[in-house]
Specification:
The structure is a single chain. With 208 residues, the protein is α+β, with helices and mostly antiparallel strands. It has one domain: outer membrane lipoprotein receptor (LolB), chain A. Helix content is 19%, strand content 37%. The chain contains 3 helices and 11 strands; from the N terminus they run E-H-E-E-E-E-E-H-H-E-E-E-E-E. A hairpin with a 2-residue loop joins strand 8 and strand 9. The chain starts with a strand and ends in an 8-residue tail after the last strand.
């Protein structure tokens, strides 16, 4: 997997109150990436299932969302646009004032990650895309890609999607709507103890 380009955006953000949601997101993602494996594991397990290429999506989709996350004592709120086509997966995060905090683009081979100056370089685009795919991708496509790598994903009923590795539940997604691209859902990661609540944004985010 290519590292791709990482650029810093000049957003003009300088007031500390505007940085808090962005730093909360960066802290959450970097903490997930750095979380140590349990003592009995000699080799750290993969941090997430294999990423599926953009062409595996069932149809072009776009969602404008409000994302609320929590990790330990940290929390954040961002407005996001998620766009998936057979050629590209694109995610952009905006602050409450509409300034762009970060954007991630992946074509299945190369990454293009851009972030505002206050966002640490430890922000992991692959972790973000892994959560997007777990929640929004077609179940058969996930199962076909995950199984050879030792991951299991299922939908036991009741609007729940469950991810396992080595028989242990790693994460769950709970849906309030049968059409998640346009509905509300929650992601709980039990390995790294973080949670995300995603709901449709009340109005257009205005990011391209």
């Amino acid at each position: 997997m290519q590292t791709g380009r990482r650029r810093k955006l000049n957003t003009g953000l300088s007031r500390p109150r505007r940085l808090l949601p962005v730093l909360g997101l960066a802290a959450l993602l970097s903490a997930c990436a750095a979380a140590p494996p349990s003592a009995e594991i000699t080799q750290p397990p993969p941090q997430h299932p294999p990423l599926l290429p953009p062409a595996s999506v069932d149809a072009p989709h776009q969602a404008e969302q409000v994302m609320r996350g929590a990790f330990g004592t940290r929390d954040f709120t961002l407005r996001c646009v998620v766009r998936a086509t057979p050629a590209q997966i694109f995610v952009v995060g905006l602050t409450a004032t509409g300034q762009r905090a970060f954007s991630v683009s992946w074509d299945g081979t190369a990454w293009d990650t851009r972030s505002a100056p206050m966002v640490p370089d430890s922000l992991r685009p692959d972790l973000l895309i892994a959560d997007v795919q777990l929640a929004l991708w077609p179940l058969p496509a996930l199962q076909a890609a995950y199984a050879p790598a030792g991951w299991e994903v299922s939908e036991p009923g009741g609007g729940v999607r469950r991810l396992r590795q080595g028989g242990r539940i790693v994460a769950e997604v709970h849906y309030a709507d049968p059409h998640p691209w346009n509905g509300r859902y929650w992601i709980s990661n039990f390995r790294y103890s973080y949670s995300l609540e995603i709901e449709p944004a009340p109005a257009a985010a205005g990011a391209q």
